[in-house]
Predict the structure.
Amino acid sequence: MIPIGVCSLVGLMVLIERSLALRRRRIVLPEIVGVVETLDAGNDFGVAYAILERHPGPFANVVRAGLDHSGAEWTIIRDAMQEAGRQEAVVLTRNLNVIETVAAVAPLLGLLGTVTGMIRLFNAMAARGLGQAQYLSSGIAEAMITTAAGLIIGIPALVAHNWLRGRAEAIIHELEAYASRVLDTLRSRGLALGGARQDRAARTA
């Protein structure tokens, strides 16, 4: 029962931490959404950088990766943003494997406790005989407690893991959508600037 209790405490701590960390309004900030939507409105990224500095986090890091490479080819911008996105996805999904492990291990620990309890019970039966039905029934009930405890911990842990995993994936998909908008904007901006440079070169030639 002690390992099962430890599993329950660890799982509860991670559940609370991830529930707070994976709140959408804490990650998909409207200020950064505004940056994404107004990137093509001006030529200077100073305001955008200032907003990103004031609101650090996964969303800001992905957008900053694109802005930092805005003068490069669009494939380089894409690769930089994809790498930043992969790193932030790891951050968003961290510790979820702990809850998954608790969901798998707690029922097994309960089953182990039941097996060891039954072994002790059978040893006691061999020593005392089969004439004490009340003792036998109470011993069997005590041995089954660990299985019940393991399932009580494991089932909610499995539900919590799937719920948090779904929340993390939804946030990641939303960040990917905004990253695609940033990439499209920077690509169009690069094409426009390239065309303007060619026009100036043609006029001066």
Q: What stands out?
A: The radius of gyration is 29 Å. Residues 2-103+156-204 form one domain.
